[in-house]
Every structure is written in structure tokens, then in C-alpha cells.
């Protein structure tokens, strides 16, 4: 397992993925450059971690999506119908008040 050296943080690949995933959970989407700067790692390390995160999220309800310069945490297309039904139900309850 590779260890990432930085001025402020020392983390292995798994820890980097955890940090990125947590930041995306909070923010929804972030640029790769912003993640690299915030985590004090090389952009290439964010790129590598994003591939691992994307692959690990395949077949799950939440997906890490690489939009080129940004990473985004989204719900998977396979659950879109259920989420849309939930949103419609919530909206109709709000309108009925």
C-alpha cells in the first residue's frame, strides 16, 4: 500500500479515498485541483484515487462521477425512479399543507 507524503498530512491511498469521499459527501462536487490543494497532495494522486472511488461505487446507490475537472457524488441511475417518486410524494405533501 502506497503512503502519500505531504507537508501537513501523511495518508495512505485508502485514507486519501476516504477524505475525498467525505468531502464530496459534504460538498456534492469539487474540482480535482481544489481537492488536491485542500488535501495537500498532487493532482495525479487525486486522479488515481478518483478512479478507485468510481470503480468501488459501481453497483451501489451512491456513485462517484468524474466530470473531467470535477468529481461529484450522485445517486446511481439505477435508483433514480425511487428517488423521483419520493420527491414527488414530498412535494405533494408540502403543497397539501
How would you describe what is shown here?
There is one protein chain. By secondary structure, the chain is α+β, with helices and mostly antiparallel strands. The protein contains four helices and five strands; from the N terminus they run E-E-H-E-H-H-E-E-H. It has helices spanning 13-27, 32-39, 43-57, 80-95, and strands spanning 3-5, 10-12, 29-31, 62-66, 70-75. A three-stranded antiparallel β-sheet has the order 3-5-4.
Order of helices and strands: EEHEHHEEH
Give the assembly state of these chains.
Answer: single chain
Span of the ends, CA to CA:
55 Å
Class computed from helices, strands and strand pairing: alpha+beta
Q: Count helical runs.
A: 4
What fraction strand?
15-25%
- Ranges with pLDDT <50 over ≥5 residues? 1-8
- Overall mean pLDDT stands at 87
What does the overall shape look like?
elongated
Largest sheet strand order: 3-5-4
- How is the main sheet built? 3 strands, antiparallel
Structure summary, number of beta strands: 5
